[in-house]
Amino acid sequence: MHVVCLQENLAKGLSLVGRVVSSRTTLPVLSNIMVKAEEPAQIRLSATNLDITVSCWLAAKVDEEGATTVPARLFSEFINTLPAEQVSMSLSVRTEQLHVSCDRADANFKVIDASEFPIIPEAGETTLQLAPPVLRQMISQVVFASSTDESRPNLTGVLLNAHGDTLKMVATDGYRLSLRSTTLPVAVAEPTNVLIPARSLAEVGRGAADADDERMAMISVTPNRSQAIFQLNGKEADGKGKGSFHRLAVVSQLIEANFPKYEAIIPKSHTVRIQVSTAEFLQAARRAYLFVRDSNNIVKLSITPGDPGRLHFFASSQELGDHESELDVVGEGEAMEIAFNVRFLIDVLSVIDTPEVALELTTSNRPGVIKPVGSGAEGFLHVIMPMNLNR
After folding, report:
1. Which residues touch 94 (CB under 8 Å, ≥6 apart)?
2. Do residues 380 and 179 make contact, with C-beta atoms less than 8 angstroms apart?
3. Domains by residue range for the chain, with CATH
4. CA of residue 328 relative to chain centroid, distance
5. C-beta of residue 34 within 8 angstroms of C-beta of residue 46
6. Could you report the per-residue pLDDT of 293-351, keeping only the tens digit for each?
7. Which end of the chain is more exposed for a tag (fewer CB within 10 A), N or C?
């Protein structure tokens, strides 16, 4: 193998694949990144922890095809220290080393043969297409609501449901629920209903931030229904731009568990509804959080609907003191007091990009619903369970 590529492109590719490298593993090859030179002119970088596999294709001058695996951490850190020049890589099968040179810097890396690297599934028939900006936003609006409790695997994933021309993503940790839906540009031939680990989707979202927004992301499920494959195109059509890539693929194992019947969790009606500035609501929540972050995270809201109405915040800590603030709102219904985990409020308000949000409530001990105002067909709602007012 002998290949030459730009340092910026190589560093970008390593940053995209390196996050899934296993830090603790009994298989040494899982601590490595596979480097594969492919004709006519590209390098494929791949890393896996067996649950998630990320591959990135970069533009390169390929003099000789070949593949090997190199220690991920050392290789990435070394490449990041190199100047923005061409990087040359050549493999010596006899010494089992990868020689890397750039400018006046040279290094030799011990390698493990590429044949020991796990087989990476190739994408099958595409089940749906989605614009990268929409995919990116959908992921950001749901993944934070998933659980990190591995004892409840069905809550650590995000439900992806596609039917006709509608795609939904849903996540819940038992205390809150996020649902985001969108209209697909091309209807799916067959319904898709799979549970994808939230961490896998988070990696897709990071990759989508560097994707070409004009070229559709492709999502498919393997024939045995055990893995989902996400494919994204790089921003530079020829892959020669600095810090760019040709293509990115994320392969994720699916969670074999039943997702909760989330429709029953979403309130069907409300007795109080207010509209408030998203930015002001978020800032008020962040101020309140400063006083309760080291205790119970509880903030009390007193709502007085009207035009104008008022939304009053109260946060208190025996050790630190207390805080009050008030916002103008427009709303209808009766006055109400309710308490929420303020960290949850911050999480959801941080992923809403409309100027105003609506808060819909029934009683102080029933879930509340937060929705963007004016989001149209790109539907998003967040259900949040209340806290005990007397705590």
Report:
1. none
2. yes
3. 2-116 (3.10.150.10), 128-231+252-262 (3.10.150.10), 266-384 (3.10.150.10)
4. 33
5. yes
6. 988 899 999 999 998 999 999 999 888 899 999 999 999 999 999 999 999 999 999 99
7. C
Chain length of the chain? 391
Across 271-294, b (16+ Cβ under 10 Å) vs e yields ebbbbbebebbbebbebbbebbee
Taking only the tens place, the pLDDT of each residue in 343-391 is 999 999 999 999 999 999 999 999 999 999 987 656 899 999 999 876 5
Query: Are 302 and 312 in contact, with CB atoms under 8 Å apart?
Result: yes
Say if residues 235 and 244 touch (Cβ distance below 8 Å): yes
The 3-state secondary structure of the chain reads CEEEEEHHHHHHHHHHHHHHCCCCCCCHHHHEEEEEEECCCEEEEEEECCCEEEEEEEECEEEECEEEEEEHHHHHHHHHHCCCCEEEEEEECCCCEEEEEECCEEEEEECEEHHHCCCCCCCCCCCEEECHHHHHHHHHCCHHHCCCCCCCHHHCEEEEEEECCEEEEEEECCCEEEEEEEECCCCCCCCEEEEEEHHHHHHHHHHHCCECCCCCEEEEECCCCCEEEEEEEECCCCCCCCCCCCEEEEEEECCCCCCCCHHHCCCCCCCEEEEEEHHHHHHHHHHHHHHHCCCCCEEEEEEECCCCEEEEEEEEECCCEEEEEEEEEEEECCCEEEEEEHHHHHHHHCCCCCCEEEEEECCCCCCEEEEECCCCCCCEEEEECCECCCC
Q: Say how many Å lie between the first and final Cα of the chain, rounded.
A: 65
Distance from C-alpha of 124 to C-alpha of 104, rounded to nearest angstrom: 44
pLDDT, tens digit, 9 for 90 and up, residues 121-155: 876 666 899 999 999 999 999 999 999 998 999 99
Structure tokens at 339: 């308490």
Please count the CA atoms within 13 angstroms of the CA of 282 that sit on its side-chain side: 15
In whole angstroms, give the CA distance from residue 344 to residue 351: 12
